[in-house]
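Hey,

Quick one before I head out. I ran the complex with glutamine overnight. Inputs first:
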Amino acid sequence: MKSIKELLNSTSLNKIDARVLLGHLIEVHLCWPKSALISKDTDELPDQVIKAWHEYERRRLEGEPVAYILGFKSFYNIDLQVAPGVLIPRPETELLVEIAIAHIQQISNIENNLNSSSKILDLGTGSGAIALALAHNVPNAYVTAVDISPDALKIAQSNSQLLGLSDRLEFRHGSWLEPLQASSQFDVIVSNPPYIKSGDPHLREGDLRFEPTNALTDHEDGLSPYKIIFNQSKAHLAPRGLLLVEHGYDQSQILKQLLELEGYEDIQTHFDLAGISRALSAKLS
Ligand code: GLN
């Protein structure tokens, strides 16, 4: 028999990972709140918890991401199921949700109609993180979410059901804007495409080794998804519509040029919490 304190003191896991994993186990097995990591840290734990802990510890030491071990990841103000078929949502991607919400609020203020519904398109939805965070936080938003991976769509669909958002979500299987009807128009088109260059050493490091390669890299120069999205979105942006993309730390300048070449205006750079230019937004005139 061992206590929380003994397990945490004797593990070689990173301290935060260890507390997150053990905090989850005591919640699930013992219905203890996370605060019990402190308040009950000398109580003896049942064998079943110790066994589950050693299994989690082994998996994490082998490099498996915490989110895949737990099977979920918090994003913005929702929890999402995640599994090896989808990218683990990153905190910096919450920036896209914030910008999209601000834009939708601005449109409804201009139109002086707080009840008007807005249409949103999320390209390469993965777990559904952006699409679902927007549907959850914008009560009158109707969201179309596209992905080329059937595995990802299954997870995103299941997340929309768990969050009770299925009636305002529509899923489409296919490449970028291809599965859309020619006449579909959106107030926001948002995407966090695979933007890492082929051969980038990060793809062989840390958590990224366990994530789907196709969600991380375009297997080219990291720009190919943007070229398609920028070009095809022009036919699908509603008047005042906003195109919004996340990008890599060094892609801002080149992507701005690509947007200008496609005729976009009001191109704006957005910075993440680390002060890195992380997203671009643009409109048509
Ligand atoms: N932001 C991710 C990372 O740097 C990459 C995801 C992506 O390509 N969209 O790990």
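The domain at 84-283 is CATH 3.40.50.150 (Rossmann fold).

Talk tomorrow,
K.
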